[in-house]
Amino acid sequence: MLSVRVLNAQNLLIKNGTLLTVTMGTVIKGDILILDGVIKKIGKNIEAPEKVKVIDATGKYVMPGIIDSHTHIGLSGTNEMGATITSEVKMEDVLNAEDTSIHTAVSGGVTMVHTMHGSGNPIGGENVVLKTKWGKASEEMVVKEAYRTLKFALGENPKQANSFNPRGAPRYPQSRMGVNAIIRREFLKAKNYMAQWDRYNKANRSNKGAKNLIPPRKDLRLEPLVDMLKGKMYARCHSYRADETLEFIKLSKELGFKILCFEHAVEAYKIAKEIARENIGISVFLDNWAYKVEAAEGIAYNAGFCTKQGVLVSLNSDSPERIRRLFNDAAKSMKYGGLTEEEALKLITINPAIQLGVDKIAGSLEEGKHGDIAIFKEHPLSAYTLCEMTIIEGEIYFDRNQYLKEREEKAREKKDKEKNKEKKGETQ
Amino acid sequence: MKTSHYLITIIGIICFFAPCSTFGEDSPTYAIVGCTIVPVKGMPIEKGTIIIRNGLIEALGPEENIPIPADAEIIESNGLYAYPGLIDAQTSTMLDSPKAENQSSSRPSPASKTEKKPSWQHADFMAFDHLKLKKSIIESFRKEGITTVCIAPDKNIFAGQSVILNLSGERAKPMVIKNPFALHINFVTARGEYPSSLMGTMALLRQSFLDTEHYCLHRGKYNQAPSGLKRPVYDPFLETLSPYVSQKSPVVFNCANLEDIKRALRLKAEFKLNAYVSGASEAWRVSGSLKKAGAPLLVSLRLKPPLTSLFVNQGEDLKKKAEEEIYPANAAKLHEEGIEFALVSSGLSKPSDMMKNMQKAITAGLPRETALKSMTVNPAIALGIDAITGSLEPGKIANIVLAKGVLFEEETKIQRVFVDGISYEIKQAPKDAQPPAINIAGKWEGLVKSPMGEITVAIVFQQEGNQITGTITSEIGKWEVTGGALSGKNLSFTIAANIMGNDMEMEFYGTAEQDSIEGSISTSFGNAELQATRAPGRN
Amino acid sequence: MKRSIFALVTALLLWGPGAAQLNKNHELVAIKGATIIPVVGEDIPEGVILIQNGRILDIGAGVDIPQNARVIDAQGLFAYPGMIDSYCSLGLSEIGSVRATQDSRETGKLNPQVSSVEALRPDSMHIPISRSNGIALALVAPSGGLISGKSGLIRLVGWTPQEMIVKSPLFMHIQLPGGRGRTQQDTTKAAPPQASKKIKEIKDLFHRARYYQKRNTAAMKDARLTLPAFDEKLEFILPVVHRELPVMIAVDTASGILDAIKFIKEEQIQAVFYGAGEGWKVAEEINKAGIPVVLGSLYAMPSKWEDGYDAIYRNPAVLNQAGVKIAFSSSDAALAKDLPYHAAKAAAFGLDRREALKAVTIYPAEIFGVSDMYGSLEKGKAANIVLADGDILELRTTITLSFIDGKETDLSSIYTELLEKFRKRIE
């Protein structure tokens, strides 16, 4: 984008495209009418209401906006490394709407991201779900309908296996044993904290007018864990090895909290049975692997195999560069895993939507959902395709043709300027 | 007795009897006549008279209406404009660095049981206790017409508490208008310890405010009816924060970019703080939220776009435009939105830079009247001192600027400034000043010869263009070199001496060569000769 | 008699140990019924390829299949030449964060003496994965410093490094500064003079090497003269100075490219560019200078916002349309299998699809001087043939068969082994 451009139309009519709805089949030569940001109608030969902008999608492929359920874009900072347990921090406090990675995402058809705390701590902070509304204010990007999630991390990263700590004594935990134990410890602390509040509240209610009661100190580090124990917030846990994944499931049952999804889960194929049975999702790379020891048995068949075993699988990028090629990764699941076109597209649309709790408003082309749409030149699962237009709630946030036009104009202007300079130089 | 000791004794005796000039408690009565008065509150008065007595404005009005008192010294001000002294509501100059403090507290004795204070806990850093009042800096403020400043600490998350000073004299206590003014908070991190990220800082701020509320609740209940209640654990940090959280004393959030402003407004709402927003170089981008929240705004004239800004990350052309047009127009755009603000120098190291940037802001569209308001009435209200300053009204402090020309126009020169009714003539560089022939910056060694004896001195000069500042050190003391000018090879400066507790000004006139300086120092008891050469070794 | 034995032995030695083994393959294989895309020449719908002794014996629509041939029915499949990865670290890298498994980068600025194939690990788990995606040959390159060392071309099959090496040394690698960054930061401060500074250093090195050799030669002839002490760096840079060994120069900035072109012309050496991220800005100059370009990974972001979000994607098309010979690379080990997808990405952003295919087959073969044996399906060339169930550059295409030097290769890998192991758990 040569400038921050947003067309303020929340009404759009997309005409005559191949509609890949993901949940309700394909509509050839289909139309989508978006009014007030919501898909009002999907069908054929829809008449354009007055003053509604029409997008001609003849020959193009129209799919739901892509959802990346594991990124760190749009933030000022990723990890709070000053402490080992940092459940008190919130990504929503450090939003950065000016991060150019948001533009990168939107140029690759991504309309929604789950942007998260890093994996430096066993318990990180509260994540946030954003719509990639490039050019808008940060608070306008937050998706309030999403589940509240807290970041957990297991394995090499939180135990600092691959970083060297120049500041003297290594911090606890330095082993997987300690990572598990410290998570247990924090939840037990949270239970104790909850008990203290319960006793205070009881005493307060019964001894009406008792002036000597001081409430316990509100502890922002334990409050999110209390919310998890009360079922108001869920765990999204970064894990690699099959064994640490199973241990965390065990821990969640022991302590009483719910895991929504495992991040990366490169060995999920080894325990697909267990994960499917627990109704926990996984959010994985298609084929990024072998960068760490715990990723040395991550195979490209992971996503496809787990899908076939009934696990809810989504693909993520965890990268401000890879985010614009998620549709390429989805296509690879057809080769590595034998998924159908629709199953492959689900990995980057409805599946992450379900995992994030936003499937009522996003993840497929259905009447009533938000008008979050990506238009591709070729089929999105073809290696030769590119994203031409990205629309969020009926507003166009990326338009490649417009972009090319502006670039040409700028180049022409520059040439004219140089020509004039030359002329001036000649006459002088 | 050594020659120098002899000298000191003589000087001391003389000083005791010599009239100590400019810095007395007793200020004369003045009548400023013939000027155009711009009171800021109310219409300008052409050909007006202002009467100053006891450091206050006794009367002002059209000259026909104001009789001149018999004891008044008349200041002819035909063709001059009189303005209220300008107020810079946030500067961090003239402050000792908090680093010195940290060093001592980071080495507790092995026996000591005190916990190490985290580096972000600087809420008790009182600007007043760490003032480094340098005469040259005070003069540089007055030179721009600034008579009142709020000196605010600016390092660490909880930076400390600011003090409001009237720039009269050199001793801190008489200058204080209000201490403390506010608690200052920065959205920065504590490097190497928690919180080491911005998200951690936000959590820390919230937890600190929550803890303060809890502490006040407990302490309040305990003070009322301690019987049967557990004693609250004394916490000096929470004690320091208490007035700001429970009694709603002002909290100034220094905001580097638009997200910082949003963060500040969120904390304001969550904890119902009396929150101010300062810095705010891109305040115009969140004008809607600012209007709604009604937080007083202290807009910095630093004018540089923050590194996070979109305008800086989308190519060189846009970056240039941002630095030269877009960000200088911040104040103008706020004004268009109907938002009032004070203009401050925070982030700039010199008040002269502030005025240069003021020009840029005006060129970018800020009306001159708004600029004036933003340095008089608005900062006075923000600082809570509008009852006594910020405009020219009878009863208010006699902080007055006499300028040859309309204030903030490029050619306008400020001739005289009154602070607390004390008159300061502003020495401009003489019109026939030549550019300096040499650079005398560096260390010098010299000998001062007077009829009473000799003493050796060590001098350090700093030079910026024509202007010379520095220090002169001898057995008797270390004094500031102020108001220095080097025109060609002609050198002149003032030594702000303090002998036996009495302030004395001594003037030097002489010539400077590349490696030698000579000239005479005139004091109230006679002349002394100074000869100095460059100190050997690296300068 | 002695002479003919001598001739036979010489022939066998020149042929190389790898080829000697393959010569044992006298079996005649016929691939029949596939749509053949030879890359050089017209496509052949439903053709026949005859393989013997490691070579393509014959290829065409109406080729007769001898009786004793083993026939492979390839009806519905597509036959392509095995692809060539023009720059990677296959065999030099296993697990990124474990230094013990990393051997592509030496310490120090000047390392002309090191050779990548001398650290090649034939058992690398990444090689079978790349091979099973239709890649047959790869240039394994050293990196780091100013002069990184020498690269070699390997085939992705073999029990020992000797069996894998096709040609070594292939290039001397030079790294010029101003490389492509990962984030979009302002690189206008990456001073253009830096590249020219480094070039000057190399020129000085060449100059010293020439003089070193002069002194050596003179001293050899005249015993009275002092023989210069052995200097490893100068010794090993001599083949480049003598124009016997071409260079591959890693450079990304437009100004760096122009400086490098000047240097190449002055020294009159044969050179290839690697990376050339801003090559599209100076495509004409690169074409005029006749320098081929091996592109870096397209999985990267442009360093300057003003260049446009698609700068790296459209770079290959612009170069190709200006007449520059291009080749794609994976620039990786763990993701080496993605070679064809870099080519397809460039095709999505303007590169002709056939040119994209050529840039992973015949063009690298020509650039590396092995096009007499590799890079296309032609009679007499090595039988590097891949059978695919679709367009070889497409993401969903599966490779069903791969011949390298006429022998069928194993398409299993750690991916398939682990999959099978844990599939058994389900059953």
Protein model, in words:
The complex is a heterotrimer of chains A (428), B (539) and C (427). Chain A contains ten helices and 17 strands. Chain A is of the alpha/beta class and 428 residues long. In chain A, helix 2 crosses helix 3 and helix 2 runs parallel beside helix 4. The longest helix of chain A has 31 residues. The N terminus of chain A is likely disordered. With 539 residues, chain B is of the alpha+beta class. Chain B has three domains: 120 residues, Quinohemoprotein amine dehydrogenase alpha subunit, domain 2 (Lipocalin), CATH 2.40.128; 87 residues, Urease, subunit C, domain 1; 229 residues, Alpha-Beta Barrel (TIM Barrel), CATH 3.20.20.140. Chain B has 13 helices and 26 strands. In chain B, the strands form four sheets. In chain B, strands 1, 2, 3, 4, 5, 16, 17 and 18 form an eight-stranded mixed β-sheet that branches. In chain B, strand 1 and strand 2 form a beta hairpin. Chain B starts with a helix and ends in a 5-residue tail after the last strand. About 4% of the residues of chain B have low confidence. With 427 residues, chain C is α/β, with parallel strands linked by helices. Chain C has two domains: 120 residues, Urease, subunit C, domain 1 (Roll), CATH 2.30.40.10; 292 residues, Alpha-Beta Barrel (TIM Barrel). In chain C, the strands form three sheets. In chain C, strands 1, 2, 3, 4, 5, 16, 17 and 18 form an eight-stranded mixed β-sheet that branches. A six-stranded mixed β-sheet of chain C has the order 8-11-12-13-14-15. A four-stranded mixed β-sheet of chain C has the order 6-7-9-10. Classes of the chains: A alpha/beta (428), B alpha+beta (539), C alpha/beta (427). At the B-C interface, helix 9 of B face loops of C.
The major sheet of chain A is characterized as:
8 strands, mixed
CATH architecture of the largest domain in chain A: Alpha-Beta Barrel
According to CATH, what is the topology of the largest domain in chain B?
Answer: TIM Barrel
N-to-C SSE string of chain A, H for helix and E for strand: EEEEEEHEEEEHHEHEHEHEHHHEEEH
CATH topology of the largest domain in chain A: TIM Barrel
Indicate the proportion of strand residues of chain B. 25-35%
Low-confidence stretches of chain B: 15-24, 100-112
CATH architecture designation of the largest domain in chain B = Alpha-Beta Barrel
* Classification by helices and strands of chain A: alpha/beta
Biggest chain-to-chain interface with counts: A-C, 44 and 45 residues
Whole-number tally of structural domains of chain B: 3
Give a count of the beta strands of chain A, DSSP E runs of length 2 or more: 17
Question: Termini distance of chain A?
Answer: 38 Å
Give the low-pLDDT segments of chain A.
1-7
* Residue share in helix of chain B: 25-40%
